[in-house]
Amino acid sequence: MGLRPAKTCRNLGKAPWARYSKKVPKKSFVKAMPHLSLLVYKMGDATKTYEKTFDYVAQSAIQLRDNALESARQAANKYLEKVMPMNYLLTVRVYPHNVIRENKMIAGAGADRLQKGMRKSFGRATDRAARIFTGQPIFTVKCFSANEAHIKEAFRRAKSKLSGEFKLVSR
């Protein structure tokens, strides 16, 4: 079964649900944490001193799943690695702490006898997401000033993987 559409979990209206403790498991609200798709947070060459810094900033509050962040990271990094190898430092600035719950329903003949519908529904943990607020940077890229056009193209490619409104801000 595939993922639900992003529109089902992208608003911040619901309370966050992220309490997970390895040291004191009794205090955990989340008993089994879903796996994380986003594993790499820094790409490029961190040893160089760069001239320019670009932030990819959210223009409205939104919740993004970890697989969307991972695909945007891969799209930007793949382009940057091709056009300016090891002349940049790309950093993911958000971490998907929030656990998304889903009340799975059984479809098909006879399924009405196996479930209670939405009565007392709480759902089980299925995915993780990052809660992003207005003005919060999602990605940061450091590079040399000659490569500004490549950074804009990389984030144009990454923008298609994310829902919501974002802008590239230079520092």
Q: What labels would you give this structure?
A:
five-stranded antiparallel beta sheet, 171 residues, alpha+beta, three-stranded antiparallel beta sheet, Aldehyde Oxidoreductase, domain 3
Description of the structure:
- The model has no long low-confidence stretch (mean pLDDT 89).
- The chain has a domain at 39-100 and 127-171: Aldehyde Oxidoreductase, domain 3 (Alpha-Beta Complex).
- It has helices spanning 66-83, 148-159; strands spanning 42-44, 52-58, 62-65, 88-92, 98-102, 124-132, 137-143, 166-170.
- The protein is elongated and about 65 Å long.
- The protein is built from 2 helices and 8 strands.
Describe this structure in a few short sentences.
With 171 residues, the chain is an alpha+beta fold. The protein has helices spanning 66-83, 148-159, and strands at 42-44, 52-58, 62-65, 88-92, 98-102, 124-132, 137-143, 166-170. The chain has a domain at 39-100 and 127-171: Ribosomal protein L16/L10 (Aldehyde Oxidoreductase, domain 3).
Structural class given helices, strands, pairing?
A: alpha+beta
Sum up the overall morphology in one term: elongated
CATH arch. level architecture of the domain at 39-100 and 127-171:
Alpha-Beta Complex
User: What is the CA-based Rg, rounded?
Assistant: 19 Å
- Tell me how many strands there are: 8
* Level-1 CATH class name of the domain at 39-100 and 127-171: Alpha Beta
The total of helices stands at 2
Please provide the ordered H/E string of secondary-structure elements: EEEHEEEEHE
Helix amount: 10-25%
| Poorly predicted regions | none
Instruction: Give the N-terminus to C-terminus distance in angstroms.
Output: 43 Å
Question: What's the CATH H-level homologous superfamily of the domain at 39-100 and 127-171?
Answer: Ribosomal protein L16/L10
User: Could you report the average pLDDT, rounded to the nearest whole number?
Assistant: 89
Query: What fold name goes in the CATH topology slot of the domain at 39-100 and 127-171?
Result: Aldehyde Oxidoreductase, domain 3
Q: How are the strands of the largest sheet arranged?
A: 1-4-7-2-8
Question: Per DSSP, what share of the residues sits in E-state strands of 2 or more residues?
Answer: 25-35%
| Biggest pleated-sheet summary | 5 strands, antiparallel
